[in-house]
Amino acid sequence: MHEDVVRSQARGHETRITICRPDQRNALNRDVAEGLIAAIQAAEANAECRVIVLTGEGARAFCAGGDLKAGADGGPFFQDPSDPDHFAGRLFETIQACRKPTIARINGVAVGAGAGIICACDLAVMSDHAKIGTPEVKVGLFPMTIVPPMMRVLPRRKLMEMFMTGVPLTAEEALRYDLVNYVTDSTGLDDKVAELVSLISEQSPTAIRLGKYACHAMEDMTYPQQMRFAETLLPRVAQTEDAREGFAAFIAKRRPEWTGR
User: Fold this and answer.
1) Whole-structure pTM value
2) pLDDT per residue over 58-107, tens digit each?
3) Are strands 131-133 and 109-111 parallel, antiparallel or unpaired?
4) Which residues contact 169 (CB under 8 A, 6 or more apart)?
5) Of the four, 15, 53, 72, 126, which is 20 to 30 A from 203 by CA?
């Protein structure tokens, strides 16, 4: 049933995963979240996939947050009180833990859970007409599940202002606060995403996979712990097939042929 609300398409080394609820501004409910999780896990298991791109269908919305009309059966604000698991939290954790590079293609408004998805991704490209916001306070809520991914990206003062006022960031502001990597006009959005996919796909999948693992592991370590971890991991990376191929290609002045091992 997830295929009705989430579409996954392989495009060479890119897998594009799209939320397909344009009439609901691609709002998140349980079915969408579980569909995204399944699609990300499938792409991660696909050896041909080098980069995962997450986006929304149409030009209006990337993801307009949690579906307020979903009701008790599928909304993000209703939960079995005896079960602490929440599908939105699992989605953000799945994106964050993905061993392959993830890019948010922000084609339109992104609020609430949409902002959380963006912050959980590695990179983000935003259309200049889009906005990113956390308007939950306007309906008496607070965006609890998106706080962890957003705190890792945005400066605290700006983040608290967003949470407490509900005022969204423009594309220019999102770029200024490093919430996104690039802002383009609507016609240039896919070109910039394709450029990043191409650049990443040319690099060693093994180096990127181990590098992401290291960056995420070191995030909550003290500085001395980070250095000890890095010192331990560097020789391991240097012993991979990709590293040996990279050294050999550099010496021979040729393009490396990555194995991903």
Assistant:
1) 0.92
2) 989 999 988 766 554 555 656 666 666 778 889 999 999 999 999 999 99
3) parallel
4) 131, 132, 133, 162, 177, 179
5) 126
